[in-house]
Amino acid sequence: MRLLNGELAMGFFKKLFFDFGTNIGVDLGTANILIYVKNKGIVLNEPSVVALSDQTHEVIAIGSAAKRMLGRTPEGITAVRPLREGVIADYDVTEQMLKFFIEQACGRNWILKPRIMVCIPSGVTAVEERAVKQAAQHAGAREAFLIEEPMAAAIGAGMDVYSASGNLVCDIGGGTTDVAVISLGGIVTKNSLRVGGDKFDEAIVRYIRRERSLLIGEPCAEEIKIKIGTAYLNEHNRDNYVTVRGRDLVSGLPKSIKFSAVECNEAIQEVLEMIVAAVRKVLEETPPELAGDIVDRGMVLTGGGSLLDGLPRLVAESTGLHVYLAEDPVACVAIGTGKSLSVIDHYVDGASLPARRAL
Fold first, then answer.
1. Who has the most CB within 10 Å: 13, 181, 223, 299?
2. Are 80 and 50 in contact (CB under 8 A)?
3. How far is CA 114 from CA 12, 62, 136, 294, 358, in A?
4. Please, what is the Cα angle at 186 between 21 and 191, to 5 degrees?
5. Is 235 exposed, middle or buried (0-12, 13-18, 19+ CB in 10 A)?
6. 3.30.470.20, 3.30.420.40, 1.10.490.10, 3.40.1190.10: which CATH number matches 17-45+89-152+334-347?
7. How confident is the model at residue 142 (pLDDT cuts 50, 70, 90)?
8. Pairing between strand 167-172 and 177-183?
9. Which residues, listed in sequence order, are joined to residue 147 by a DSSP beta bridge?
């Protein structure tokens, strides 16, 4: 009887401890980090960039302040992206950056540390998974859980992932593209590419260097992509152009050119073809019954990369499906990650979540 009362008391205090603690979802993106706090929504959206001192490796700036330094830092300071292609490239810097953002979102609470759900690409290795989980724990998490990006994106887009019907989602982030068919709360078939918005930028830099003999940085390429980048040329965007400034590779002097939407489309064709091929591969591996559901329901695009002009139309014509852009594509993964925290209460003792095995 005493043992039973003790277990009941332990359960009561455990539930009380969990209810008062902060639950947050983290979209640990290559380009941006978004944090979702339960009952508050998205409370932080910052670039995943850190400025470091070359001599002491001390952090000088994080987030927007550090991004403004990209390509502009003086000698002795380096602005870096500690996440590459959806995974941790520099563990120590990622840990410091994550700790800073968690404190910004939740404040410093050393008694009730937050439980954190972190999304990861579906194609990461076990070593990369452990690195993300350990970084979250060392950054101040009481408990850390992982969820795959396509599952989080589907939840954030409002798809009924727990029904017996097939749901097709494609999340195009800064470093990765994840395509998955989801049914009954799990991923049936998936494909993950280390290709995303950053590859568009890199392709534009290479094209301008090769075809126009002008050297530009990736921030400039990103601006070009946002202003005139298109996946599908038509009479409305074909004549768009932007003035690009950089360094002439022949003379070595500053120079400006006019860069057209047609050239930009040509520059990113290879990356677009890879994304379309990834979607087709998942469709080819989808069970027939779920394929029928997808024909009826269509496909949802999420992630910042899906905002590229004309991309939904390009994918629709390449696959024959109805393609929809999520209501808030940039925040979808973070929202889904945060919403999935409600499932944790049923898996408090460490059992695996439906979307991701426990580590």
1. 181
2. yes
3. 19, 21, 10, 37, 18
4. 110
5. exposed
6. 3.30.420.40
7. confident
8. antiparallel
9. 119
What's the CATH fold of domain 160-195+272-329?
A: Nucleotidyltransferase; domain 5 (3.30.420)
3-state secondary structure of 81: coil
Q: Distance from CA of residue 319 to its chain's centroid?
A: 24
Question: What is the C-alpha radius of gyration for the chain, rounded to an integer number of angstroms?
Answer: 22
Assigned token pair, 324:
């929809």
The Cα 301–Cα 156 span in angstroms is 11
DSSP 310: T
The domain 197-269 belongs to what CATH superfamily? ATPase, substrate binding domain, subdomain 4 (3.90.640.10)
Percent helix, strand and coil across the chain, each to the nearest 5: 40, 25, 30
Q: pLDDT tens digits, residue range 313-358?
A: 999 999 999 999 999 999 999 999 988 877 655 444 433 344 443 3
Report yes or no: 64 and 48 within 8 Å, Cβ to Cβ: no
Select from 279, 267, 177 the least CA-distant residue to 230: 267
Q: At 189, is the secondary structure helix, strand, or coil?
A: strand
| Predicted TM-score of the model (pTM) | 0.86
CB 122 within 8 A of CB 31: no
User: CATH 3.90.640.10 spans which residues of the chain?
Assistant: 197-269
Contact (Cβ atoms closer than 8 angstroms) between residue 236 and residue 278: no
Burial pattern 2-24, b for ≥16 Cβ within 10 A else e, equals eeeeeeeeeeeeeeeebeebbbb
- pLDDT in the model for residue 343: 65
